[in-house]
Amino acid sequence: MAEEGAPGRRGERGEEPPAERGPGAAFHMFVLMEDLLDKLKLLSYEEEALRRHNMRPLSRHYFALPTNPGEQFFMFCTLAAWLISKAGHPFEQPQECDDPNAVISNVLSELRSFGRPVDFPPSKLKTGCGEQVCYVLDCLAEEALKHTGFSWKRPAYPTEEPEEEEITEDDAELTLSRLEEDIAEEESDNEENYIDLNVLKAQTYRSNMNDTAKQEEILQSTTDAAEWNLEVERVLPQLKVTVRTDNKDWRIHVDQMHQHKDGIDSSLKETRGYLDKLHNEISRTLEKINSREKYINNQLEHLVQEYRSAQALLSEAKEKYQEGSGGVTERIRVLSEITEALEKVKQETEEKGSSMTDGAPLVKIKQALTKLRQETIQMDIQIGVMEHTLLQSKLKEKSNMTRDMHATVIPEATVLPS
């Protein structure tokens, strides 16, 4: 795209941390974060990385200031994994349930594989913000840009075209008309009149343009010097020139910086003595505290030893208690099982005992026997009746037979005598 060796390209500031920590080192991470955000925009991180995970775009100082450690750490892991994949190395997208130490170790190993130095502990990345986080992401973004073939262009400055004279004349006439209106308003309000410097320049330019249109001729003054001085004194208040200061001018900022520096130096001279005195008092107090601490430690050494031995005995007693409590729990479980079996046996015994001592079956047997006796009696009666009936029938039949026999004998007897 452009020549790769462009001097002063952006991004080189974030590759190596400064060797010496100057007064502006605390703001280095903000500059680094702004460079990182520009590189991420060049890589289209909003379309490729954030929309896939439904995340919001980063602010200018997202990783420079601590806001939400959990969210910032997850955003750091997501962007690091995406940049490593963008740089040509396959890297699995981390999840929220993954081990943070393992994710940080994998990211740093990939960073070392790119040849980037890592001279800080991995725990600095757990907070999800800070100079180390910005440094890691900036290095990975630089490698991703190299892999995609991107290179920084030389700056192209626009050419300024000169303004035309007609526009200047129009502006001058416009400024002169505004000047006349301002002077009329100020005279009506009886306030102090002043002429703006730009208006004077415009008026001078217009007068020069009018003079060039006339023929040049030698002028000879006929005015009295005393009258001239009086006229000068009369119009002198109206010729007061005021220069309006522009707050955006760099000279104003430089003057303010010098004023603030002088104020800081003067305040530092006054407060240095108090700070030194406070430092000395704090140092003496710390020395006293250290000496008292050593004295107390020496005096309570035997008590500390006794406490440690008591702690050891307590730990042994706790271990024995845990072992004993485990056996007691097992025995309680066995006891509960035996108790349940005993309850079942008791219930069965009670049921059998209640059935044995209950008189209802005996009463039923007696009632059945009584009923049997009554039925036997009834049967005996019926048998007697039947026997009597049978006997009667036999006797009747016998009498009938006897009668029949007599009936046959009588006629024969009657026949014989004749």
TrEMBL record:
Record keywords, A-Z: Cell projection, Cilium, Coiled coil
Biased amino acid composition, Basic and acidic residues: 1-19
Residue numbers spanned by region Disordered: 1-24
Residues in the signal sequence: none
Any GO CC annotation of this UniProt entry: Golgi apparatus
Coiled-coil regions listed in the entry: 169-196, 300-352
Superkingdom: Eukaryota
GO BP annotations, alphabetical order: intraciliary transport; non-motile cilium assembly
Family matches, as InterPro entries: Intra-flagellar_transport_57 (IPR019530)
Coiled coil found in the keyword field: yes
Subcellular location as annotated: Cell projection, Cilium
Record flagged with keyword Cell division: no
Family from the record: Belongs to the IFT57 family.
Protein name from the UniProt record: Intraflagellar transport protein 57 homolog
Source organism: Junco hyemalis (Dark-eyed junco)
Lineage of the organism: Eukaryota, Metazoa, Chordata, Craniata, Vertebrata
